[in-house]
Amino acid sequence: MLTLLGAFMYAFLIKAYTGLPTGLKQDSNDLAVYRDTGEAILRGEFPYRDFFIEYPPASVPAFVPPALFTETPAGYADFLAHQMSLVLVATLVLVALTARRLGGDWAWVVPAIAVAAGASILFPVAVTRFDPIVSLTLALAAFCAALGGRYLLLGYASLGLGAAAKLVPALATLPLAFLEKRIGGGLRGVLLGFGIFFGVIGAFFVPAYLLGGERFVESFTYHTNRGLQLESLASSILIKLGWVQNIVFEYGAFEVSGRGTELLSALSLPITGALLLFTSAIMYRDFRAGRFGRGRFAQYAAALVLAFVIGSKVLSPQYMLWLLPLVPLAAGGLVGVGVSVVFLTTCWATVQIFPLHYGELMDMEPAATNLLIARNLLLVVLWVLMLFLPQSLTQAATSKEKP
Fold first, then answer.
1. Could you tell me the pLDDT band of residue 30, with boundaries at 50, 70 and 90?
2. What are the C-alpha distances in Å from 68 to residues 32, 41, 80?
3. Which residues contact 341 (CB under 8 A, 6 or more apart)?
4. What is the pTM of this model?
5. Which residues pair with 289 in a beta bridge?
6. At what angle are helices 173-183 and 261-288 packed, to 10 degrees?
7. Helix or strand or coil: residue 56?
8. Cβ(371)–Cβ(352) under 8 Å?
9. Looking at residues 286-305, what average pLDDT do you find?
10. Where are the extended beta strands (E) located within 135-207?
11. 168 SS3 class
12. Does pLDDT of 403 surpass 50?
């Protein structure tokens, strides 16, 4: 059954991709960056030193195969779509295996369907961005957390690879460390795990810095200099208040300007930090109370990612892919079904915003702006759910076994 679900998801993603307009495929800015990077690597050039790239160095390997085996922008986009679809299938399999390990023989069904449905809903970005790589590393970490023992160290390595590609998986090391402390090798195991995590990051970052120097550092400052993106939570609030006066294209995205935009852009980092700190405090409370089992990893990893997403001044539609392997694993039973429904509704609203009604949003038409703030409020609801879920997938399975 899982094989059929994976095959169906793959076939749907490719079929849906073929129907996308060229502006979302070979003519998109993101795919142009990917292709230019892949072709530059094949010419023997080195990222940061010979050309600028805004992404961390572990993202680069994903850009090379499509450039190696194709010759045109359309061919590159097609190859990448197949490549990312296969990565998402692997993510689906890992989520199913994790759910089965945590909750029993049939506990995988709802999470797997949620992953397949979420990826299919998000197809306009799921197969045209490299973010499925992040999804896969988070899925592998969740699987390692479910296995426990020495596999936790492999989880740290997976998160190191994900962080070297797009930074955000670094957030998931905290719940993994709590789990290591509770069921693994104690403090020594935590220190060893972080050593592996930073070792994997260093394997990518050190050569990039030695060869790229200031331009490698610039790839990080590039993002700190960005303004308030149109789709962010802060932007949607300002739009509803009528304070946004203009929308401009900067740093590869549409940003808003007007009353309060510079202030909220500057406050983005401390707000995000406060949300992450609050999330960590709730997680620590569960840890101290002895409630931090293997099923809690996905729940709190999702909570931390959501805290980052809702606090950030940048909120791109592909960020939803980071949640794909985590939210469906956060709870079992009817609670898990409800959480998955909220998550899939958020995915649907995201695609309604981009690409389907993005023009209306840029014109700040009421229907589009209402949809944007509804999607962002759903993200807040998901974050709160992750913090206060009554039971994890493991606990749901355990309660069913009790007479």
1. very high
2. 15, 10, 11
3. none
4. 0.96
5. none
6. 10
7. coil
8. yes
9. 93
10. none
11. helix
12. no
